[in-house]
Here is the input.
Amino acid sequence: MTEAILEVEGLHKTFKGAVAVADVSFSLRPGAALAVVGESGSGKTTVARMIVGLERPTAGRITACGHDRSHPPRSVRERRRRGGEIQIVFQDPYSSLDPRQSPATAVDEILRLHTRLDAAGRRRRVAELADLVGLDERQMNVLPSELSGGQRQRVAIARALAAEPQILILDESVAALDVSIQAQVLNVLAGVRERTGVAYLFISHDLAVVRQVADEIVVMRGGSIVERGPTAQVLDNPRHPYTRLLRTSVPGPGWRPARRATRKETQ
Amino acid sequence: MSGILDIDHLTVTLAGEDRPKPVLSDVSMSIAEGEAVGLVGESGSGKSMTVRSIIRLLPPGARMEGNIRVRGVDLGTLRGAALRKMRAEMPVIFQDPRAHINPVRSVGDFLTEALRIHRRMSRAAAEDRAADVLDEVGVSEARRRLRQYPHELSGGLLQRVMIASALLAEPRLLLADEPTTALDVTTQAEVMAVMDELRRERGLAMLFITHDLELAAAICDRTAVMYAGRVMEVRASASLLERPLHPYTAALATARPSIERKVDRLTTIPGRPLSAFEAPDGCAFNTRCAHVRESCREQRPELRTLLDGQVACVRVEELQAVSHD
Amino acid sequence: MTATSVVRARAGARAGRGGLGPLGVTAATVIAVAVVLAAIGPELASADPNASDFAHAYGPPTPGHPLGYDSQGRDLLARLLTGARTSLLGPLWVVALGMTAGTAIAVVAAWRGGWLDSMVSSVLEVMFSFPGVLLAMLVAAVFGPGLTSAVFALAVAYIPYIARLVRSAAVAERHKPYIQALEVQGLGAFTICLRHLVPNLLPLLAAQATLFFGYAMVDLAIVSFFGLGVQPPDADWGVMVASGQSGVLQGYPAESLLAGGCIVLLVVAFNVLGERLSDGRRVHRPWRLFRRGGTA
Here is the structure.
C-alpha cells in the first residue's frame, strides 16, 4: 500500500461552542478518489475548508504531501507551496470566477504565481489546460458572464489544475449543474484523473454521483464519521442505520417514499 | 376532454431587453381529477414558467396566448376577486419556503390568516384546524409550533408548514414547484411521503415540477418532459422511465449517474440546455440530438399520441424499431 | 480628474443600454459641460476675473461682459468661469482623498475581520458624531483658513460614511468563492485585494464618489461662505454667494444668484447621476432569477 498523500487525524472544529466537526480521521492515497458524503450540517464542507486552510482546526492534524498544514502558513513561500499541493473547486459556478477576468487571464495569473514559464510557455499551458477540460479558444477569451454554468465550472477546474496540485478537492462542484451538464463535467473529471493522476477529495450529498466518481466513501453525520469503506460495499451493503436511510431515500425505479415516524392517529 | 386543469396551446412571451423573449411555446397538457402529473426539465425548459402562467404570476410585460382552464373555467376571463378566489383554490408550494413566509409573523398567524379572514373562523377554531393539519403533515407538537417563528424551524419543517397551509385552503389541485430541491435527501423522502400520502387520501390532483426525472416518475401518475419551452413527451411515469420514446428523454435518463453501478463514462448530451428564445427552427432539440435528420430541422414536430402517451418526435417509430432489433 | 473620468466612462457605457435614463443622461451632460468649462473657461473669458473697476460696480451686462459686474466692478462671467475650477477641484480632492482612505480602511477591516474589524467599526462610530462642516471650520480656525485645510478636514469627515458603505460590500465580496480560490492558490492578500477585490467594487465606488462629490461641493461652499475656505480675491462659487450678499440687500442679486444657481445645478446633477449609477448596479434582470431558480 502506497503512502497517503493526505492524512487527516483527529480533526475537530467548534464554532462559538457549537461542534461542527468531531474527531474526523481519514487518508487519501495518490491518484485515488475519496468521497466525503453527508447532508447539510454534517461538517463535510468544514472539513474541506480546514484542509485548504480557509478555516483553522480547533484540534487535530492535517498532513499533505509530507507537510503539516494544521497551522496557517508562516511565509509567502510556504503559502505558495501549499497552493501547489491542494486545490479546491467550489459549488456555485456563478461566483467562482472573477467577473472581470477572462478564463485565459485567470489561468495565466495562476501560472505566473506557480511556474517560471515565459509568456509563450504560459500560453501553451493555458491551451493544454483548456483542452483538458474541454473549452475552446473563444470560450477561454470571453468574460465569465458569457459562459454557462457548466463552462464556468470547467474554467474553475482548469484554474485549480494550473498549479499542478496533487490533490483536488471538489466541494459539491457538480451539485448546481443541470443533469446533462453534470454528466459532461463528471466525464471531464474522470478524464482529468486518468491523464494527470491527481487525487480527488469529493465532497457531496449525491450518492449516485459519488458512485460514479469515488473509489472509497466516508459517511459523515453531525460532524462525525459513521461509516467508511469502498464505494460499492458501502452503497450496496450499508451497515450503519444512517447510511441505510440515506441509501433508501434516493428515488429510483420502484421507489416509494415512506414516512419514517409513525403518524399519530387523530380523531 | 375536461380535467381539473387544461392547458391549451399556451405560448408565453416576456418583454426582453431589446426584443420579446419567448419562454413557453405551444404547451398543451391536462390533468384529470385526482391525478398527479410531473413536469421535468432542465434550466430554461419553461417548467416553472408553466406554473407561473397558471397562477398568472408572470413578470410585467409578459404576453400570454392560448388558454388555461381550471375545471372548465377559462382563467384568462377572471379578474379581481374571482381570480384571487381561483388562486386560493390552487395553492403553490415553492422551492424556498423561507422566501414565501413572512419572517416576523408566527407560524400560527401564517396558517390561520386565510381561515380567519376568508372563512370568518374564530381564532381558537382556526388554530384548532391549523394544529390538526400540522399534525397530519407530520409536524410534532403542533400547538407549540403555532407559537414559533419561521427562523426557529428547519427547512424541512418549514416546507411541511407550507404544505399544511396549502391543505388548509382545501384545494382540488396542488401546484408544487421543486418543493424538495433545497432539502436534504432524507428530508426530501419524508416530505415527499407526506405529500404523496395526503394527496392520495384526499384525492388531490397535483402538478409537480422537478428537475429529477426519477423523483417525478416515483410519485406521479404521468410525467411530462419539457425542453426549450415545449413539451417533448408525456407518458405514464413507469413506462417513461423504462422505455423513453423521445431521444431527449432517453438522453436525460442515461446522463444521470446510477446509484446501482459505475460506468466508465456517462453518455452525455453535447452542448447545453437551450431556452425557448434560443431554440432552433424545427425540433428544439435538433442541435443536440444524436438522431437528427434533415426533416427535424425543417418542421416542428407536433405532440402526437403514441402508446400510452404523447411524443413530439418524427423519428420515434424508426428509432424504436432499431432499438428492439 | 480621476474620479470624474471614471464616472463619465461608466455613464457612457450605461447610457448606451438606456440604463441612465433621460434624466441621468442630462445630469451627465451638465457635469461634462461644467468640467469642460472649468478646464478651458478661464481662457474663454475675455476679462481678468480679479481686475476691479469701481466705475462698473453692479453694472448691467455690456458687450464683452454678458453677465455684468459685481460690487467691485469685476466681470461676473470671468469670475464664474474661474470659480468653476476651484469649485470643482475642491470637491474632487475631498472625494479622491476620502474615497482612497475610506476604501483602504474598509478593505483592510473586511479582509482581516475579527478584532481589527470591530475596532475599526468602533472608531468609525465615534467619527460619525463629528459633523463634517463643523470639523472643517474647526480645522480652518486652528490651521488658518484656506482651501487645503478645508479639503483635508472634509475628507476626514467623510471617511466613516464611505468606509461603512464600502466595508459591507467588501465583506460580501471577500467571502465569494472566487476570492477564496485565489487565497487557496497562495496569492497574497494585498495582491488579491488590489487586483480582484477592489476592482469588483468599482461600480459601487464610482456611484458613491459621484454622490459624495455633490455633498462635498455644498459643504465646501458653506465653508467658503463663512470665509474659512477659499480666500478672496480668488473666485469661488461659495465665496461669490457670500460676497454677493450685500448686493442682494441693495437690489443687485446677480452675483449670489448666479453662483448659487451653479452650485445647485451641479449638486443636483451629481446626485441624480450618483443615484442612477447605484440603481444600475443593483438592477437584476428578472430572467436570471427564474433561470437560476430552475437549476438543479
About this structure: Chain B has two domains: 5-90+171-324, 98-170. The first helix of chain B runs from residue 47 to 54. Chain B touches chain C through 18 residues (CB under 8 Å). Residues 98-170 of chain B form one domain.
